[in-house]
Amino acid sequence: xxxxxxxxxxxxxxxxxxxxxxxxxxxxxxxxxxxxxxxxxxxxxxxxxxxxxxxxxxxxxxxxxxxxxxxxxxxxxxxxxxxxxxxxxxxxxxxxxxxxxxxxxxxxxxxxxxxxxxxxxxxxxxxxxxxxxxxxxxxxxxxxxxxxxxxxxxxxxxxxxxxxxxxxxxxxxxxxxxxxxxxxxxxxxx
Length: 190
Ligand SMILES: Nc1ncnc2c1ncn2[C@@H]1O[C@H](COP(=O)(O)OP(=O)(O)OP(=O)(O)O)[C@@H](O)[C@H]1O
Prior knowledge:
The protein has helices at about 40-50, 80-90, 95-100, 115-130, 145-160; strands spanning about 5-10, 15-25, 30-35, 55-60, 65-70, 135-140, 165-170, 180-185. By secondary structure, it is α/β, with parallel strands linked by helices. Helix 2 runs parallel beside helix 4 and helix 4 runs parallel beside helix 5. The protein is globular. Keywords: ATP-binding, Cytochrome c-type biogenesis, Membrane, Nucleotide-binding, Translocase, Transport. InterPro entries: AAA+_ATPase, ABC_transporter-like_ATP-bd, ABC_transptr_haem_export_CcmA, P-loop_NTPase.
């Protein structure tokens, strides 16, 4: 098992977003989380990635988790290839194959701050691909992507699962992920 959550509760400010939440992701599996704005999708994903402590429950994670959120977390002043190499060095990977997969190899010399919204998003996904983490935690990964970008993202997730990785994805946009389990958060009564 790559990640297991048991009886998790999440309190944000005074609000209990969810409780007694249990889920597990094994190698090759994907889970798509949907639900209205503010219901707690990002909070759940942050807990899965180890970025937020749950107010109750247990998490077991085997291996590294790669977090993809709203921010690109790439140095705006560096050429894209250097910005990605910075992370790849820390993670022990190489960015070039990941840039190819996301169709941004030609942008290698361009400073990150000159990239368009969709190019930046592709770059963030390339960073996730290059991380080598077994668990991908993707919060609205398709935001800003064109149709081709969405197809590349879906292919990258498929490829990751084929190599015994797992992914949990919160999305408002349709994302074709074959055989993914679905979790719809409805929220608790206020
Ligand atoms: N640091 C915080 N302190 C207090 N409340 C927070 C904090 N972060 C988020 N919240 C609240 O927790 C709730 C859930 O937020 P979250 O970002 O998990 O929702 P979401 O389902 O991902 O929403 P969206 O679809 O808009 O991205 C919201 O009501 C939000 O205002």
